[in-house]
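Troubleshooting: if your tokenizer reports a length mismatch, compare against these two reference records.
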Amino acid sequence: FLFAENAKAPTWQRCERSRQCQSCYSLSAIEPKGKKKYPVCVKVNEKVGAIVVEDEAKGPKKFTFDAVYGENSKQVDVYNISAKPIVDAVLEGYNGTIFAYGQTGTGKTFTMNGMPSADLQGIIPRSFIDIFDHIQKGDGQQYLVRASFLEIYKDDIRDLLSKDHTKRLQIRDSPEKGIYVQDLNSIVVKSVKEIEKVMLVGNKNRKVGVTDMNAHSSRSHAIFIINVECSEIGPDGEAHIRSGKLNLVDLAGSERLGKTNAEGERKAEGVQINLSLSALGQVIKALVDGVFVPYRNSSLTRLLQDSLGGNAKTMMIAAIGPASYNLNETIGTLGYAYRAKSIKNKPIINEDPKDALLRKYQEEIAALKNQLDRKRSGGGGKKKKKKKKK
């Protein structure tokens, strides 16, 4: 369905501050292509955190989560109750991931990005505000914040902040950095305005297109990465650094070619999108079943490896279409998210990481200060020879 641009943030979601994947759902009235209205086939019970899907052929199906929000909920509620705990954890030094999954056209990008007006802002811009508000209130702490923005288009990784944003980048793994993208730009940002500018530049380079299900369909998976390093003096009198990484993931929507009527390039994109989402589903299933996990089957699952069963606190936002027209997709998405909430992650605080840039900058500043002090005291540089008088 088409998510109205001036709509409120109709959202239903599961949120918990445990080592499990978290799920969230978006609801709205559906009118495919604006031609025909279909009856709503889902019922939300906010008090007990449950949703029931009315399936005339097989009977009602009930799914339970930590919390559910009906179509009158607001973006600020989604953020404060479900996303903010992840952002707060990153500021404490944990890794955190928030990613949106679901059928095409169900409001994933709206939930993540929102609209410019304050009440319609999504999770990503609200996280910017929280991060820099926290930094401004810090007492005796030093912070370094860096932002990166990439997309996965047809399983190729592209840097949305690069001059050549069509260049294919490689995934690497190292003991110090873990899993990372080689040559990915990382921009130092010092304010909300600066990080918003980074996101704006990246969004302009992202692949989007038109299908019968969505006039502004994302044709790639996008990951906005925020690295937050904090240095403060510990009880031992030494400076200690903790580093948190926040992955904000807007997945392209799953598609049925019979509904999108995509052809040519759009069709090829849809096939690749579905393949990567299928790989994500296989990883989730393997983690729940306790068998070998095929992380390497796609670029998406490789990049999200720490977020799925690893060192991260993760929340999954699963957007659904509540109209009977999307019954099968809705049941599939709910089942997908219900399995995902059983994943056990192992998040730890990243203390004194070897690759912390903040420590490198501190050492460089200290060295420059020492040089300056030596010069001021006359101990630095070569002494000038005195000229002999004739």
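Reference record two:
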Amino acid sequence: MSLGGSKVTQGYCVASFSFGRVLMSPYLGKMSETYGYRTTLRLSLSLLITGTLMYAAAGTPYLTGPLDGLFGTTRAGLALLVSAQIVMGLGSGTLGVTRAYVAESTGREERTKWLSYLTAVQYTGFTVMPVVGGFFCGLVKPSGVIPGGWRLGALDLNEFTLPGYFMTAMASLSLALLLTVFKDKKRAEKKKAKVVERVSDDYASEKAGFGEFSRFDVAVLGCLMLNVATKGSIAVYETLSVPFATSHFSSYDSQRAGFAVSSAGALGVLALLCMGLLGRCMTDTQMIVYGALTMVAGTGSLVHFGDHKNFPPSRFEAAIFLLYSVGYPIGHTAVIGLFSKIVGGRPQGALLGWFASAGSLARMGFPILAGYASSYLGSSVVFMALIAVLGTAAVGVQYFTKELARLSTE
């Protein structure tokens, strides 16, 4: 907004990041199979460093001001900001790569646990980084400790550029660790040959009764749909939860609602760290069903067609706890673990890259559809639709539990 944009421009900025990640995730996944993880991650971190520097430059008036005339009524800073978001999205398309690395470094029994630890790191970033950004904004804003920021050589450090330079430093540190500490893994050609020979005539290759699709094909497609259902659903809550709270409860403003959601996300990290213990008494399919039904329960507590004055805030608080702290982190991580085990000894990078892209598309599409539906039909209709989606996912997994269990242990 401070660069002269509107809410529409803000929407493009947010969507452009996901757009870049959707495009790059499958390519980086395939690249990791061909050139190894170190080379792939080096490329992604280089893109991230470039993108964060572009982001910081977008908030630097003396860099973008002379270029304003080239963009007519659009400020150069806005064009650079959207471009930076795309580049950072391209560099962030490594979910499939990192998951594939974990998958190839762990056995089947331990895989879901270690994938949950990886997800916990991601979850922590979602929870912590907005706080870090808020800290920098508070530090250098006009009424902050350092009013208006300061100049450090060619760097203009203000509330918009400082978070960008901080992320540049973090990405540079990660690149240094990658080049000095990280242990690469490369698939052996002999191992590939054995895998291809073994899977050519096993249970996974049998026809599933859906045209020419094999059991493996159907299982992979099913996991992609589960990924879309869980990712898309949580994206809707990320979009609607704060506006829902502020419009329904006089005691909630945007800051308090945001803090409540962030707190629930922090508890979700603890749930992820406990996945190892949970995995000792539950299978992946059981955790998926449990997670989906927990999300259904949380969503159900938000459905309300009566007077908002009779809608207690405790139901909203219970909902975000069930969704962010329990249902989504456990259920979605179990989907990742099940998918990886079904892929088995086959190359994981490309398939997990497509898996990540499917999730990113869901995060883009579901909120847009929910926004329109909420505007015309009300938020409760949206929540009822999500109950149907998540409930169908839980029933489907329960129905095909035996087949999924066999495919994930072959």
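Descriptive notes for reference record two:
- The chain has a mean pLDDT of 81.
- The CA atoms of residues 165 and 327 lie 35 Å apart.
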